[in-house]
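User: Hello! I'm new to structural biology and keep hearing that structure can be predicted from sequence alone. Could you demonstrate with Ascorbate-specific PTS system EIIC component? Please show me the input and the output so I can see what each looks like.

Assistant: Of course. The first part below is the input, the amino acid sequence of Ascorbate-specific PTS system EIIC component. The second part is the output, the predicted structure written as tokens.
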Amino acid sequence: MEAILQFIQDIISEPAFLMGLIAFVGLVALREKPHKILTGTLGPILGYLMLSAGAGVIVSNLDPLAQMIEHGFNITGVVPNNEAVVSVAQEILGVETMTVLVVGLIVNLLIARFTRFKYVFLTGHHSFFMACLLAAVLGAIGIQGIELILLGGFFLGAWSAISPAIGQRMTLQVTDGEDLAMGHFSSLGYYVSGLIGKLVGKGSASTEDIEVPEKWSFLRNTTISTALTMLIFYLLAALVAGPQFVNELSGGKNYIVYAIICGLNFAVGVAIVYAGVRMILADLIPAFQGIASRVIPNAVPAVDCAVFFTFAPTAVIIGFISSFIGGIVGMLILGFTGGVLIIPGMVPHFFCGATAGIYGNATGGRRGATIGAFVNGLLLSFIPALLLPVLGQLGFANTTFGDTDFGAIGILLGRLGNSMGNTGIYIIAAITLLVLIIPNFLSKSNIAINNVEE
């Protein structure tokens, strides 16, 4: 039984397989020819593997940058990293995480089928991370066994459907009406950035309309502009860290050469991500029409944040830089106030900061992208610091969950559970159930809630 559960977990925690499976079901529902089913199923799988490969290149080159910054500026503290904290958690909560994940996926599909929250969450690794968080927080309160699995699975499935719906009107602005939703558990940070864009961005031109003189027109090439931006980051970090430390990271390679190679490799990773995204969208969206028309009427795919990078490539870089600056400011504030020092994690600030920039740009142009992503950076500092006390055994690890939704859900359940016990958790579950059901009675529409442009 455990081997079967492990197999299921491995399948559904791999977004590539999950996207391929969804595409396959959709194409079968559309009664496409066998060769189209084959190519249409393989397309999203290969596209996501390409996206993952690009993300792997980005992450592997962000790690030495983070080490150079920590060493050069003599910073020590907690580094938020979802992968790191989950790997620690699996030794304590492996079975709980696995079963919560399976139940959560089933609940998400049931919600999409029978309510107006018709969002199918396709980012399997983030579902896995959230399952781990829920197992840790509920376990720390004292909930165990089948009760933990059912409650954790319900919260996972419900948030997988509700979180894309909250900001769907903004997401449609980002995608110019493309039938996609945000399937990433840092969504609250993106939506906050979008709201800030509305407040501060009136009259501000889009980041994508920045006028570039002809002699600088090569900067319009996203790969080139990313490479030049990151070269500045890496060279500055290498100079501050010093040749001796960087030579240890590089295995003896000259520290300036190593910094240049890392910066250029980072840009290559971004280019691979863009190529993978285009491949996913080319096959997944047409196939998903089969799901929407036959299996789960009007279903909307909720996909990884990196899928949105191609809609505003300039906002990606602006968002990353602004979010990272916000993270540094947040770290300094925590240091001055005596809180846990949250060191800005380069991975969350790149992926989440970039996406916050995209949302801020969609609603408020350049000002929205800059200020919205900066506030996102502050959230990525403060929320993990507040989350640590409710993680139980995981709170002692030298890392924590990095994205806003993990923190918000964990803090809400943890604080309420600690003050009201199991009763508080069941109150939240009841309120969540009402949120899912009530829209069905308020409107006869079968369209996914909020899936209409403002």
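User: So the tokens describe the shape?

Assistant: Right, they're a compact way of writing down the 3D structure. Reading them back into a model, for example: Residues 67 and 384 are 20 Å apart (CA to CA).
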